[in-house]
Amino acid sequence: MGNLYLVRHGQASFGAADYDNLSDLGIRQSVRLGEYFAKKKLAFEAVLCGTLKRHEQTWNGIAHGMGDAAPTVPTLAWPGLNEYDSEAVITAIYPHPLTKPDSPEMYKHHFRLLRDGLTQWMNGVVSPKGMPSYAEFVAGVVSALDHVRSQHTGNVLIVSSGGPISTAVGHILGTACETTIELNMRIRNSSITELVFTPKRHMLLTYNTLPHLDDAEYVSWITYA
Known about the structure:
Distance between the termini: 33 Å
Strand order of the largest sheet: 3-2-4-1-5-6
Order of helices and strands: EHEHEHHHEHHEE
Radius of gyration: 17 Å
Low-confidence stretches: none
Structural class: alpha/beta
CATH topology: Rossmann fold
Number of strands: 6
CATH architecture: 3-Layer(aba) Sandwich
CATH class: Alpha Beta
């Protein structure tokens, strides 16, 4: 029986011209997570990572925090662990110029549109431009889970995004699309979701935890976007 640690990337640059970069805080979150892994003496026999910049940057931060305890095996790049395109999802149901969220009301509006767009995409109502179908998206995530089950028996680390991680959990638990979306909306930056796996299946152990940020000094480090 093995343990799979699914880590969401650190805080990215929400509202910036290029979201796909960690903020300074996102880098600190990632390094802190690596320090936690090292303190727990976790040894990873494999690392799978989405191919987005924020995934690679998060893994680099984790490895830096782990220091000499960082795994020496090559990181396996896995495109199926990449996030959906939130802008394409929203545009599919709201074909108007998207203004940059800069107030609580605008943030709420943005995420209402995202929930609606995700619901329609997941149910096959809309096909966001440049994106796979939801069935294809799920298949990309499940392919990573299947690889872990078939190739490993120890501790494995996956660095990805909220969409693929919530999709993995939804797939394992057999949740409705609406529940998977709510899991997605609540997932925090640099959080850990732990699965136990055998050659036959994965089982959920924890979801969306932040043990590396438990101390009071890190309260301000907890972020969602």
